[in-house]
Design brief:
The protein has 323 residues and is an alpha+beta fold. The protein is built from five helices and 18 strands. It folds into two domains: 101 residues, Rieske [2Fe-2S] iron-sulphur domain (Rieske Iron-sulfur Protein); 198 residues, Naphthalene 1,2-dioxygenase Alpha Subunit, Chain A, domain 1 (Alpha-Beta Complex). The chain is elongated, with a radius of gyration of 22 Å. The structure holds FE2/S2 (inorganic) cluster and fe (ii) ion. The site of fe (ii) ion has 7 residues, from α2 and α4.
């Protein structure tokens, strides 16, 4: 039985094409995903004959064939043919539960595992990739703003600006927490590119247990002009991110989408570089201890939700950042 009560998000549905098996990870178990006709199946990526990876095999008409000795398995995972015997052998693949929701493929060993609640709306665009970093450090990076002046200098905020005092409130919820920041004038390319009436934005960072980050930007007219969902999973030594980006800029939305997509790609690339540098460095220190100040609440709170839930904040509280 899987000890994780949540389904693991592994791929966008559109990344899986019919008849080509794909290897993903259920944390540290290799899993092969197979799409045939309109059904998606998942099995442990292990041929019962001699353990070759089935993800390197072939699929045709729902039949998965191992590339080593050609054993064939039908859609319910049962062996249907062994070429050298010219008959079937009584064995089957270990099935993994699959769910498709929000355009995402989720897997679990437990069919009763949960899928977190996300927006049903179709995103303006999506981005996905892998980062060699822990899920905790990636979630913190996706949700905290203090690195943006340095890592995204000129794009999101800037190193050179005079810092401004911003009041923030952390509000706990049943599923995680949100941090609401006061609105701030534009400081980077991303906001300058947006139409004037959308520029004074206030940010809301939301963490949803266990692995979802949501960044929202609201304008003075209380319109949520952008929402960036990061749906993360640990797959072996990497964090896989599936990002859904929503823009609500009225008539400007199509053009803003075209402009924003390469900028967001660049921003995530910048985050990947620093996260992988950090991860590599951490390998050299056995039990690293970190100093967190009171502005580091996002990372501290996520850590509590993941590893030390009884200590998480239960009442809203205020703090101040200089952005
Ligand atoms: S290992 Fe798969 S057919 Fe032999
Ligand atoms: Fe970032």
């Amino acid at each position: 039985m899987n000890s994780n009560p949540y389904f693991i998000p592994v791929l966008f549905e559109k990344q899986l094409t019919a008849d080509s098996p794909v290897k993903v990870w259920l944390i540290d178990t290799p899993v092969v995903l197979v799409k045939s006709k309109d059904a998606i199946h998942a099995y442990e990526d292990f041929c019962p004959h001699r353990g070759a990876p089935l993800s390197k095999g072939f699929v045709k008409d729902g039949v998965l064939t191992c590339r080593y000795h050609g054993w064939e398995f039908n859609a319910n995972g049962k062996n249907k043919h062994v070429p050298v015997k010219n008959a079937a052998v009584d064995c089957e693949l270990k099935r993994i539960q699959v769910a498709v929701k929000y355009g995402i493929i989720w897997i679990s060993k437990d069919s009763t595992a949960l899928i977190p609640e996300l927006s049903e709306e179709l995103p303006a665009f999506t981005l996905n990739g892998k980062i060699h970093a822990s899920i905790l450090n990636t979630l913190e990076n996706f949700l905290e703003g203090s690195h943006t002046h340095f890592v995204h200098d000129g794009l999101v905020r800037s190193k050179k600006i005079t810092r401004q005092k911003i009041e923030a409130t952390l509000i706990p919820s049943e599923t995680g927490f949100s941090v609401h920041y006061q609105s701030e004038p534009p400081k980077g390319l991303l906001t300058v590119l947006t139409p004037a009436r959308f520029r004074n934005l206030r940010a809301v960072s939301t963490y949803m247990h266990p692995n979802i980050s949501v960044l929202e930007y609201w304008n003075d007219a209380n319109i949520r002009v952008a929402r960036i969902e990061g749906i993360l999973s640990t797959q072996q030594t990497q964090t896989v991110y599936l990002a859904r980006i929503y823009l609500h800029l009225g008539l400007f939305t199509p053009i803003a989408t075209m402009i924003a997509k390469p900028i967001f790609k660049k921003i995530i690339q910048q985050d990947k570089v620093i996260l992988e540098l950090q991860e590599k460095n951490l390998q050299h220190f056995k039990q690293p201890s970190f100093v967190s100040d009171e502005t580091d609440v996002v990372g501290v709170e996520i850590q509590r939700w993941l590893y030390n839930k009884e200590n998480r904040a239960v009442e809203p509280f205020n703090f101040t950042v200089y952005w």
